[in-house]
Please model this.
Amino acid sequence: MVPNTLEPLFWDTNLSTFQPTAFPDYTIFRVLEYGDGEALKWLQETFSPAEIRRVIRTERRLSAKSATFWALVYGIPEQEIAALAD
Model:
């Protein structure tokens, strides 16, 4: 269940029925792209570091700014980040 405080990150989703673990790519992307410290804490409690790293590597919708930041935070080489591919 997504906390009500994170509702602005999921503006197009019915949070009363949404199961974030059923849609990890969507959920992780939204938090990484739009979230704050509280959202990140919830994300790290909900998903494993390996799952978050996988999404950072494969999610093309991440902005270049977010992709570069999260690559640094999670120690992923930029050439492994799909959003930064030419």
Observations:
- The chain has one domain: 21-84.
- Residues 2 and 15 are 7 Å apart (CA to CA).
- The mean pLDDT is 96.
